[in-house]
């Protein structure tokens, strides 16, 4: 299987590729590896929606992939989704995409504008039709992600996002990954491991090490059972 594995940072990528067999380097932070029976192209986009959308769009334009995987860490809105928990993100949305006035926040779709966006973005929620179809990832807990530019440690804006949209976790790249894959009609899966609770500064509320370790174990286990 030809797979595109996308991460935002090398912190997430390095453990994932530790057991991969290096084949070649493309331009930028894009590399090709062999893992078992699979050809895996690894793309480290950099953090945020803009870098992610550009990097994935370029990769999908140049190569036809059987599957794209976005693997990374995230913050949790829910106490039951503890640091270290690995999730299958089945839906994403952009909670900052809209307008704020004295009456409060309104999503761009509710303002009557013609956004001229492709069909996957006509609704507030972007849904992954493949999230429960990819062997190796089916048993993971499904969650909804909210993709943001601002990580708020005060807990004020994030509580508004949660009450308005019922997000389970917060990411900075997931929605861009969804949008790129849906627009390119490439099967995809987004896997996130919880590293912290949203809005908390305390060091003991963060566990990046466990999150990345569990993320790596989950992705490797899935690659081992995916068909050729």
Task: Tell me what you see in this structure.
With 228 residues, the protein is an alpha/beta fold. It has 5 helices and 12 strands. A hairpin with a 2-residue loop joins strand 7 and strand 8 (104-107).
Mean pLDDT: 86
Low-confidence stretches: none
**What order do the strands of the largest sheet run in, or round the barrel if closed?**
5-11-10-6-12
How much helical structure, as a percent, in the residues?
A: 25-40%
Q: Which geometry do the CA atoms define?
A: globular
Q: Roughly how many Å apart are the termini?
A: 5 Å
| β-strand amount | 25-35%
Q: How many beta strands in the DSSP annotation?
A: 12
Summarize the main sheet: 5 strands, mixed, barrel
The sequence of SSEs as H and E is: EHEEEHEEEEEEHEHEH
Key attributes of the depicted protein:
single chain, 228 residues, alpha/beta, two-stranded antiparallel ribbon, 5 helices
Topology:
Elements: E1 2-7, H1 10-17, E2 21-25, E3 30-35, E4 38-44, H2 49-62, E5 67-76, E6 86-93, E7 98-101, E8 104-107, E9 126-127, E10 141-147, H3 156-165, E11 169-171, H4 174-184, E12 188-197, H5 208-225
Parallel strand pairs: 1-4, 1-5, 5-12, 6-10, 10-11
Antiparallel strand pairs: 2-3, 3-4, 5-11, 6-9, 6-12, 7-8
Helix pairs in contact: 1-5, 2-4
Question: In brief, what are we looking at here?
Answer:
With 228 residues, the protein is of the alpha/beta class. The protein is built from five helices and twelve strands.
